[in-house]
Every structure is written in structure tokens, then in C-alpha cells.
Amino acid sequence: MTCLSIVIDCDARHWGELTEKENNENMICTLINSITSYTTAHMSLSAANRIIIIGADSALSEPTIYATNASTDIDMNSAVKTAIRNALKKSASSTNTTDSAVFAPAIAVAICHICRYKNEIDNGDGRILVINIGSDFLREHNILMNIFFAAHKHNILIDVANIGETSPILQQASDITGGTYLNVKKPRQLLQYTMCFMLGKASLRSAFPSPSSSTSVDYRASCHCHGVPIISMGWSLLFQRITATTGIFVVFGGIALGAYKLRQSSDSLRGSGVYWRNQEMEDFVHCKEENLKRTTKS
């Protein structure tokens, strides 16, 4: 008895870009049919199973676009296809210029649905499948990490079927929660991948080889403020204000992002004797008590 919450990237721009990249006009129909077949397979495992489909896009005022209802679902396949198509139509007609889909609220809603299912069904289980078509998560990194840890606390797996470039943040989601991460290089094979590696519940995963176990997870941070996807090295120094100026100097990957200038020597800063290295310019900065000095390494 499992509640499967499927979070789908419903940004119509990403679906259109994928169609152009694959040079296949039927790509959208192929993906929708794959998702529908996967939901049917899940429901066939138990009469008590439940399907929740959540759309991740800022154009959707209600993220839950489909939820199983045994009393009204005469044809579940048709209902699922219609729900996904309607979500894509809303996204395509939206004038919102957001760069990427809003995944954090969608995954949070998925966790809430699973927790409710566990309270209603004895020995109920739940997991999340994230289908990403091409969104990046730089501006949602901090929120998403908190959500991933919340899912881990509630014993909820997060599986990821990522279509496009590798997503380190989604890799972290699967690694933290014990799920499976898949980079789907051929979108038309989405159904085969999900059926082979993401259909079984948590207790059965150890009996099957996991494709994500052979790949290392990239836990390097990303700069959601400046749009830098991966940061190799970063430091942040915060100083206590004494007279007039608070100094904040942040270096990411050897590039200084910003600093407040000192007005006079009287505007002293109380440092802690911290060194940090500018990797590209080979500079060292040493902060001592009463002032901030910068010297260039010879």
C-alpha cells in the first residue's frame, strides 16, 4: 500500500525545447503516455495504492493536478493525460517570465499528501518521483535542501528521472532520502527506466541493482544569488560593527562578489585572524584586530 506522488516539470518551454532537441513532434505525447503507463502499473500492484500528480510551474495556482478517486475514476488513463495536458496549456498561455519551475512548493505538497496517506492507512508507505524536463534549481537550493531533509525524516524516498543535463541538487535529493537518480538520455525510454528501477517500494530496492549507486554525488554548493551552478571553493567573513561600518567580504571560486569599503581608519573592524585564499589571483587576505589589510603573494 503505497502513495506515489509524481512531481512533473510542467514548464511548457522546457517541453518545447526538448521537442526541438529530439526533432520529434510526438515527443510530448510519448512522455505523457509513459507517465500514464507508469501510474497504471503502480495502481495495479494494490487496490489501496494511490496516485498524486503535482505540476511544478508558477502558472499553476493549484499544484495538485490529479489525485486518484476510486468512486469517480472510470478511466484513470484518460484523466491523467487530460490533467497533464491542461497543466501544459496553462503554462504555455502564462505571461510569467520565471526562469525555472517552482519545485520546492510542489515537493512540499507531495510530502504532505504522503503524510496524510500514512495517517489514513495502516502500514501505509509513500515515495516521490520527480520528473525534471530541464529546470535548474539554483534559486531554490536552500529551500529544497530543507525539504529533502524533511522527506528523509518522514522516511519518504525521492526518485528522480532527469531528462537533460545532470542535476547535482536532484542527485543530492535521491542520496539523502535513499531514492534512485536516473539521467534519462533518451526521453522515449522514460517508461522503461521508471518501470525497471522506480516501481518497487523501499523494502524491495536492495534486491535490485541501483544505477545511481555507481555514480558519485556532487555535494558542492551553488550560488543561487549570482547564478553560478557549482562553487568549488567559497568563504564568508562577517564582522561586528563597532563605530560606523559593517564589513562583509565574500569570495566564491576566487572571485570577490562584494564588500563594504572602509571610510576611515577609525571605522575599525574587529577581526578574528582569518585567512582566505583568492584561487585565481593568488591573493591572501589577512584580517587582524583594528584593521583589514590585504597583501599580494609574491
UniProtKB/TrEMBL annotation:
Transmembrane segments: 238-260
Xref: Pfam families: Tfb4
Entry's localization field: Nucleus
Gene3D superfamilies: von Willebrand factor, type A domain
Domain of life of the native organism: Eukaryota
Protein family: Belongs to the TFB4 family.
Name of the protein in its database record: General transcription factor IIH subunit 3
Organism: Onchocerca ochengi (Filarial nematode worm)
Lineage: Eukaryota, Metazoa, Ecdysozoa, Nematoda, Chromadorea
